[in-house]
Request: fold
Amino acid sequence: MDYQRIYNDIVRRGKNRLFEGYTESHHIVPRCMGGTDDLDNLVNLTAEEHYVCHQLLVKIYPDNIGLVRAAMFMAASGVGPKRNGNKTYGWLKRRFSEYMKGPNNPQKLNPRRGDRHHYFGKGRSPSTEWLTTDGREILSDKMLGDKNPCAGIKPWNHPRATDYSKSIWKQANTIYQIWIDNDKPSYCKLYTLVNNKCYTNESGVIGPYMNMIKYFRNGWVPKEDIEWQKL
Reply:
């Protein structure tokens, strides 16, 4: 089957019509493949067409994990018209599983051994002490409340906060409004909505969004936080 021809036909049809009703904006060349937000790279599609286009992109570029993730997200999403995602979601999950079995698995790309292990250079080796119930209770007690050296420190003031994470926290009020307006989505959907591009699996990129979601769910409103206002 000529998936590229089908994809091109849907895009061409979307470009050459005036459509009234619910539509979704689609990047003809996906952001994760270098596509821009220019008008000539955008087309308004029905929800069904948009869904099919992302499946077609995975068929056309089966090794692009960003496209697989985007299609998986759409298959599982409850936002907008209901997706008919049973078999499609299963197919995408299997494709993702196959991709992760190969050399692209992050554990194979960056295994925790040698100088990459978190105990390297600290004068001690990993211990199973903390795997026992008593060990976990001791560790929990050591880090409880005021005993935790970072207790009460906001994420943007944390010793390990980076320029990137601080820049994201500065946008917290805008991100909060996007989160509210889109039915409080998960961090990966929130990342996509804020950045208008596919979510990646780089922890340094997604980390601030994961932490921010926890704050939002606990009732934190950025503009009401005096400490955040000083950021």
